[in-house]
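Supplementary notes (optional reading)

For those who missed the lab, this is the record we used. Protein: Phospholipase ABHD3. Length: 381 residues.
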Amino acid sequence: MQRLAMDLRVLSRELSLYLEHQVQKPQLVTGGESFSRFLQDHCPVVTETYYPTVWCWESRGQTLLRPFITSKPPVQYRNELIKTADGGQILLDWFDNDNSKSYMDASTRPTILLLPGLTGTSKESYILHMIHLSEELGYRCVVFNNRGMAGENLLTPRTYCCANTEDLETVIHHVHSLYPSAPFLAAGVSMGGMLLLNYLGKIGPKTPLKAAATFSVGWNIFACSESLEKPLNWLLFNYYLTTCLQSSVNKHRHMFVKLIDMDHVMKAKSIREFDKRFTSVMFGYQTNDDYYTDASPYHRLKSVGIPVLCLNSVDDVFSPSHAIPIETAKQNPNVALVLTSYGGHIGFLEGIWPRQSTYMNRVFKQFVQAMIEHGHELSNM
């Protein structure tokens, strides 16, 4: 046993030395010197070297293990169902933070809108950690659960996709109308970030949001699909996510049977096949390629009109590095890309036993705090 412990220490030391030579500081890509200086002054984590957990540094390991390793801080939600123009409903989960000592006046308490990933809800560990960090800062949070994903019934034969921003626009308008005097920010993870970027690209500066952050976004869905269809990635990720999507729509099967061949949908073996048979049909696209083109946020990045920070790992198999729009980001002074060497997809695990915090969490906390407390400096730079 003593020999095993010694071997593990040696292995850990060797891995640490290896990573010290391999890991580099994040690449910070901004469209303007002002945003770059602002982040270096008020969000220094984006310029610090990120060291992944030494026994779990590879992309797939980071991605697979994060949900099992990271803790789930307890959060007591207040639920709200809001109606949509087409007769549907959206479930919002609120964390009001009424015990906030920094912002005791609820009308001016900063509000953070959180958007989970493809099959995620307000119960995801990364969402719970963002709420926990926001609680420390005194902020209020509200989680946007996509239609039919958090246990509520579908009232119309419609789900969601990252190209259609109508539900997100409804939620943003609703939240802002409740607290028009409160600073209002948003953060989206994976597909939630893609939806958020597509919304920002469509609406430009005419949004009540003060700033936004995205994490592990898939910039070009064609490239994402090709990567996830490689044999190992299909086995580890693609097939499982496909079955999750099938399960989510099969719960509401009775709503779709007159519009979509659900038996054909349930035979899909990949996300691309699911989208071809279900998502693109549901939202009226002529072809699945048309849907993927419209849903890919890279081509809307140039139109984003508020400060946005986008964290991606270049080893993320869900979002290949060659598809990250570095040159486009350089053309928009509102955009900052933070690109790490490692981190996987929504991983960013760090430390020997990374249960409580990740690099992603630290970026989130520093960025939202910087924008709320010092955001006015950007307009003066």
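If you only remember one thing from this example: Residues 221-295 form one domain.
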